[in-house]
Amino acid sequence: MKLLLIAESREGKLLGSSSELTCFAKQMNADSVMLLVGNDNDLPAYNGTLYLADPAQAGEFNPAVHKQLVLEVVAKEQPDMIVLSHSSYGWDLAPRLAVALNAAQISEVVEVKQDGLLVPVCNAKLRRQVKPDTEICVVTLQAGAFTPSEELTGTPVVVKLTADGEGNILFQGYEAAEETGVDLSKAEVVVSAGRGIGKPENLEMIAALAKALKGEFGASRPVVDAEWAEHSRQVGTTGQTVSPKLYVACGISGAIQHLAGMKKSEFIVAINTDKDAPIGEVADVLAVVDLKQLVPILTEKLSA
Amino acid sequence: MKILVCIKQVPDMESKFKANAAGDWFDSSDLAWRMNEYDEYSVEQAIQLKGQVGDADLTVLCIGGEQVKETMKKALAMGCDRGVHILDEQSYQRDPFAIASLIASFARDKDFDVIFTGLQSQDRGSAQVGVMVAELLGLPALTTLVEFAYDNGTINGKRELEGGTRGKVSCKTPALVTCQLGLNTPRYPTLPNIMKAKKKELISIPASDLGASDSRSQSLKLAPPEKKGSGLILEGEPAEIADQLIRILKEKTTVLA
Ligand SMILES: Cc1cc2nc3c(=O)[nH]c(=O)nc-3n(C[C@H](O)[C@H](O)[C@H](O)COP(=O)(O)OP(=O)(O)OC[C@H]3O[C@@H](n4cnc5c(N)ncnc54)[C@H](O)[C@@H]3O)c2cc1C
Is the pLDDT of residue B225 over 90? Predict the structure, then answer.
């Protein structure tokens, strides 16, 4: 079995997720080669052939041109599987490759099984084992699912690729996330509100509990999207990453993108009416109760 | 301008799920159904685009059994002009490529200027269908948009990247875009518009008429994750839970010290 691993770089820097691709290849017990559109002074720790294209020429984000580069390497190396991260870059490029190669695509793999790959269904409440029916297939890996236990070492053998073509999308650069507002990463206690608070007025009781615990309040994405809280309070992959002494998740289901931002917290309390909510997987304590009933009483008792 | 928005009906994620008899998908009985959350943003953006350009025709497309018509009616009540229902009681058995090939087969000769889809569905979550439709039709695809603007044949968008950074992208129409959560504020259908929607055209096309491609992958098994959670579960009266929680926090953490 041979894998083609697609690493990523952003704003000129290699992303750490390349080590997850290598870790996956190891678990698959497979040979691999790697492809990166990135700078030659920031290479992955990888012992193998690295096909490298210059972002000045290929564009850091240019799916049509990157697709051509991958197809070129596929023609040369004849891999059985093309592996990307399930990231904004990976889930954009992978289906383009699958269509071009008449290949099956399996998204967001979390585990390798004897016969097939495991992927989440319905907000991780279920897991599905999938098997490709095509000779070559494209897979994307859930962030954090294949983290190597130790830091990788190695030096790749670089083979340079030349990109040409324009692509059909114009990329005009990056815009940084707003940096104003609170810095949740400094708080010892974070109490977060999820969609389960029901209405914006209920944010007050979450803020009051945070205050009683001498912490800050945070929020899940729907609360921020609905403009009930500012973006600096969002916890998760597209917000802040926090690891406080105590994290209290109120009315938060525990989607993978939220968990990524808080699962390293020292102690996690979840308040949720759904006993099966995936937040239960990481919680030290799951209180199965209506938060509107529990939170005010808890705040009152803590303040007494 | 001709606009297409593709939506999916999904179960409420707060439901209890179990595998079906074949063990290849979840059991669909006793579930409450709704519009895929990501698609609510696509429908809203499509309606806003129609409002902006004025002279536009907006079609909403949905694949599934008879029951998906309920969700399509919501899209019509929000402001889509007509509905195309691709009737397929077993659509859950098709992989994302087979679904994309159905949509592409319908859209191929229709000259849509802009096609909207959600970034992904809440149940399957593959994030494949939109991009595959674009590739099959040879259109540019802007994905994961949290900002969308249209100006005279050009779409300017912002893609959401990890950490909340955004990537500025643009392309010429015809094009496809996939919508990320937070792109806009989806409207609620008003009662008069719900009444009006009942009179809007909603045609059904059997999936077999569109000649779908075969799936390229198969589900072997579906099951709940092996329970990793070793956490303590507290149930009962809120006041008692509060007392228990405070006791645990005193014992296991230093935050109440
Ligand atoms: C690319 C990408 C990036 C993302 N980035 C982020 C991110 O950074 N942060 C983030 O949070 N999400 C992010 N998301 C969204 C994520 O997938 C989920 O949609 C989101 O986290 C869900 O938020 P929630 O748990 O508040 O809402 P829901 O999933 O709707 O859960 C609400 C929960 O509240 C419970 N509940 C309801 N009523 C009550 C009550 N009265 N008392 C107690 N519990 C109650 C329910 O049982 C349910 O579990 C991202 C998604 C994508 C695709």
Answer: no
By mean pLDDT, which of A45-49, A179-183, A268-272 is the weakest? A179-183
DSSP, residue by residue, B177-190: EEEPTTSS-PPPPP
What's the rounded mean pLDDT across residues A181-210? Answer: 96
Q: What is the pLDDT of residues A230-242, one digit of tens each?
A: 999 999 999 999 9
- Which domains, ranges and CATH numbers included, belong to chain A? 2-161 (3.40.50.620), 184-303 (3.40.50.1220)
Question: Are B119 and B94 within 8 A, CB to CB?
Answer: no
pTM value is: 0.95
Question: Encoding tokens for residue A239?
Answer: 């917000």
**ipTM more than 0.90?**
yes
> Three-state DSSP class for B165?
coil
Ligand 1 neighbours by CB, cut-off 6 Å: A 194-196, 220-222, 234-239, 251-253, 255, 257-258, 261, 271-274, 277, 290-292; B 13-14, 119, 181
Report how far residue B234's alpha carbon sits from residue B221's, in angstroms, rounded to the nearest whole number.
32
Residue carrying structure tokens 């929607």: B197
| Bridge partners, B150 (sequence order) | B155
Question: What domains appear along chain B, each with residue ranges and CATH number?
Answer: 2-210 (3.40.50.620), 228-257 (no CATH)
Cross-chain residue pair B169–A301, CB shorter than 8 Å: no
CA nearest neighbour of B169 among A96, A172, A56, A58: A172
User: What's the CA-to-centroid distance between B41 and ligand 1, angstroms?
Assistant: 16
Identity at B121, one-letter amino acid code: S
